[in-house]
Write a structure and sequence with these properties.
heterodimer; A: mainly alpha; two-stranded parallel ribbon; B: alpha+beta; 5-stranded antiparallel beta sheet; 9 strands; globular; EC 2.7.7.- (chain B)
Chain lengths: 450, 458
Amino acid sequence: MEIIGSQRKPVHIDVVPTLPLYRSAPPLEVRLEDFELYAMDRLRVLKGIADGLSRGKKSEEMKILADHLWKANMRHPDASEVVNKDIISHFVLRLVYCRTEDLRKWFLSMETNLFRYRLLFERAEAQRALMAEFDLPYRAASHAELESVKEGLKQVAQSFGQPLAADAIFYKVPFEEVPELVAGRRVFIHKGYAYVAMNQVVSLVATQFRSHLSKALILTNRKWTSTIREQEKDRLTPIVEALCSSYLGPDYSQPREVAEISIKDIDQIGKSSFPLCMRHLFEKLREDHHLKHGGRMQLGLFLKGVGLKLEDALAFWKAEFSQRVGSERFDKEYAYSIRHNYGREGKRTDYTPYSCQKIITSAPGVGDHHGCPYRHFSEENLRAALGKMGISNRAVEDVMDKVRNRHYQLACTLTFEAVHGTSCDAGINHPNQYFSDSQKVLQSKNQSTV
Amino acid sequence: MTKEEIENGTADMEIDQRELMNGERSELNAVPDGFNANYLKVYYGKLFPHADIFKWMSYGNDGKHPGCDESYFGRREFSFTLDNDIYLRFQSFNTASQLENSIKEKCPFKIDIGPVYSIDPAKRHAYAQSGNNVFTPVEKELVFDIDMTDYDDVRYCCSGADVCLKCWTLMTIAIKVIDPALRDDFGFNHILWVYSGRRGVHCWVCDPKARRLTNEQRSSIAEYFRVYKGNENSQKKVSLTSSALHPFLLRSYKVLEEFFEGNLLSNQSLFSTEERYEKILEMIPDESITSELRGKWQDNKKSSISKENVNVDRWKQVKKILKSGKQKAQGLGKCVEEIVFSFSYPRLDMEVSKHMNHLLKAPFCIHPKTGRVCLPIDPNRCEEFDPTAVPTLSKLLEEINTGGLGTDDDAEWDRTSLGKSIRFFRSSFLQPLLKSCKEDIENSYNAKLQHSKTSLTW
């Protein structure tokens, strides 16, 4: 891509009939101001998708949401420019989001979701063309083949609670090529072939898209650090760096305002200032003297963000775990990963505490206690937990109402407000934000009573 | 040893007379129960089917066809566990006789079969320097391991290492659920089921496609078969969605229901005591239903219903009340099925199936703790299999003693209880497998020839 100064008219290219795959930066010319504007428009789409997901919206709703977001933000007065805007904005954001692992993960996730939803809106021929692009030459099952396995297809559809459409298209694929679908019993398998429904094929294409983009981001990062950043330091680099930080908020990797905490304070501040997700993990840890990996990551990084130093963290986890597995085993099996979280081992990444969005979309399994209680607890358990926090019945009802509408972060915000007796206009979107806001409220209360 | 053999002095005194207990001289043929190196020596010398194992593991690459891969057998890992728990890994052999001689010489207490590697395991250190994963598994049978101890929470007749005909039903069910799925759903044909020697069964899937599956693909098959996800924290260890079941689960349920109602209910006396029926009531997430049932049963303690009927009766009551739809509480939709699945659906050891490099005990080994032979099981007649009647090492040796003069030393196994099993192994598994392998070798060889012919154009 060539970035040009303001007044020149951009070059036209042929309109592409299918979704762009962003395989390589096309030879387009871009005006400097469009460079930034296009990227910001696309970022609004991605951020909107992220928001929708954190509210737990289901696939159908997300598809419609993505469509609205796209239409609202990615238009262009000149119809032939629409595709250019799509491609250019994607590549600009690649520069912005290639620079750290967390940024890459977020971008990869949102772009893949966006791709998937857009793909679902495409016509069948366009979808098939894309499948071919990705070397997924699946053959559509013939009418006769479908007739012979109709009963099984119906039963599988019913197991998702959906009726089988009369004209539904299925692809006959060797079962070993769709391991995720087989593992989840989401396809009918017969004599070594899986019968894959259209929307499932879309997932497969999306997975390919994701894997290509993931590799591309690594390469982009290399190019950025080795040449582009320096070359463009007076022109593009400041724009790129500004684009990123305005949208992700503080990441709490360096606790700044909050004073460092020590182990003896933990129980007390846990009761007063931890959000429910961390309270739960903390209680389970005290109870069982153990947490599985997901829980250790979620709670451990949160504590780091809260200001717990590495030495104190090691002492804290050791005190608990050694009651269950012994101190030798703790040193051998668990201490390393705590040091790893603090960036003292391996590739020395200083991991950032998880945001609400990340926690909500996690998937706790049997024996796990991480995740977002507003999303992952049963109604009964959630009510009990809120009750233990001393929240009035009316407040609990308000919270449950938000939960039922899948506004998990709003539910947590209401909880915060009920516990502290103040309002929280910004809304909670990070557990460490809950903590620091809570501490602020409590400190100002203390000062006013002194 | 027969009189003739002793008089002629022709037979080798392979069975040491001192092995016979004092006072049993009258029963010259009797061999006391046991498992030791001497017994094993005879077993490996006369009974263990070395040649069959070799043929199986060669998968048709016997060198008789130009398309054969002569290195194939030599790249297979075997491991031997010796007498004093010494464990020898990465054993490999180039010929049938090398395999046989090594087994006879080392007399392993256990033989495990590992994967076929990219190079001869014996040479793996030579390639370690290149660091590019040059030494890596390339083929391995898809295997399953079902162990009775994983069912300890649903069997009352035995626990731990014990096994009896009553709980063996669970293994029968496992075979009847998994085997048809492997054939009809996954399209596999060359499947061998083997008694593990003590309390479980192994399954070897040997189709070429199966042998080349990646770890991820193996994992997906194991997950396809997984239903039970229990641990001590979860109340319900089987959780089926309340919409319809996947066709595989529907098909399996027919088998499960048949055995649960026709066999397990009574044999395990699932409802006969308060402790036992409480376990089932725990799986019903509706207080009003469970208290109603509890009330009835506590009253009935003194009723005249004979012990046999109490289990069938109470189960009928449970089904009736759950299916009546009176209480439309959530989670009741598939409660009956969940209970049946919990008590009978196969519980696989996931780790065994997921990894290509997993080592699994070879068929026809002897189990050190029970002395029983790891015999093949016919899946079509698995209800007839009786683990308590499987011949032991000592019994086989007795049978050799009574076997009489045989000129054909090679078929000594045929005069023992092992004969039937080896013949079954050959006819129902090995021969069809080898036939199919040879066809494959021939076809791919011809295809290669065609290809090179067509590319030779001027």
